[in-house]
């Protein structure tokens, strides 16, 4: 038996193959929800460097939402497919966690066992040797078997790049798209060119990883398969077992592909069930790595007025007369008749605030980048009153209050199960409430809030994605348990699109 191919090594390769497929397919589902890529952080129409849609974006703000841009991918290609970005994001989180864990075990064992010497070059001779091997491949010939001990120089460079450069780069750019990371460490995100820079670089890394996998699997069958396949399956180079190894490898690849597709159809068969299981698993990662990060947008110096965006996307359209006669009438009367309820659902205590009452509270301003879970972003200066100051108007926090519910004069854009649209609401926990950059904003960039961005007042919770930030706010209320509202998931986007209650990534 060749000890250079122990069981743990072969098992790690198989797990990596399964998980990277889940990772890529769920990533494609996320990309299909906004099939455009920018380097500019304001995502202005016509400035994409790459798009996977023929739709042309209108130049006017507020008339075209990102949900209108969503594309549907077949479940055979995406995980889960069929315009389910919320579930795609959960599968991406599960896949990332397991993929990183498998990769860490693999790398640790490589160094513990000394097998790292097989893939990490220890001599500069690897460069001219790999060039000679490349010329052989480009001539459509096959290098001699004597070069594979067990890998030739070109393979060593390739594996070193993928394992120690490309894979970590995918992780680093993925982390940079987390609002919790951006709100706490804005310099880190800006290092990649902002949210859109990180998103585009992450896409390029995905293309490279996909290309490597296709090439890697193809060469296994094309270059000395009688040597490769017994190694992969049995760990030895007994050529007499080639046919057996070939059948096992092909059957395994087919089984894995069927497993990937089965995951999509299992998810779509009961999306609420899948949401419950997947978010429970991914919340483990958020608790460990993100929940303790608190935003400091007002105290950071990375984002300045120079970064303020020229264009701002939106998701959701302002309420119509059919949706809220009260809001439309107040809009037409310069918000003079509009009030925001500050309440306590535990005791029934409440009071009404006018916009002038809201403006009379201490002002809090900062520059921050807003991100939608679909992928667009925009940087603005937001000004408003802290949510804690607003709720303090009712007195001390009520006994038993564990969350704050914020609801809107507007409705959800659509519900995942096609039922009638419901009033938009979002719930935040006490830790998020007490973050210094959790505010009810009434100004953007020094001017009254735009109608399409939530006028006269909208919630801002900078540690989370935009779906937690209710526009056209109707009320802010203490509650005991979010499970008693809506579908019990903690918000309209959680109910209507099966997003996670915790929107920190």
From TrEMBL:
GO molecular function: electron transfer activity
GO CC term (a single one): plasma membrane
Coiled coil: none
Biological process (GO), any one: respiratory electron transport chain
InterPro entries according to UniProt: Cyt_b561_bac/Ni-Hgenase (IPR011577), Di-haem_cyt_TM (IPR016174), OxRdtase_Mopterin-bd_dom (IPR000572), OxRdtase_Mopterin-bd_sf (IPR036374)
Compartment(s): Cell membrane
SUPFAM superfamilies for the chain: Oxidoreductase molybdopterin-binding domain, Transmembrane di-heme cytochromes
Record keywords, A-Z: Cell membrane, Membrane, Transmembrane, Transmembrane helix
Domain Oxidoreductase molybdopterin-binding intervals: 333-480
Transmembrane segments: 96-116, 156-181, 201-223, 243-268
Membrane topology recorded in Swiss-Prot or TrEMBL: Multi-pass membrane protein
Occurrences of domain Cytochrome b561 bacterial/Ni-hydrogenase (ranges): 5-225
PANTHER family xrefs: PROTEIN-METHIONINE-SULFOXIDE REDUCTASE
Protein name: Oxidoreductase
Record lineage: Bacteria, Bacillati, Actinomycetota, Actinomycetes, Mycobacteriales
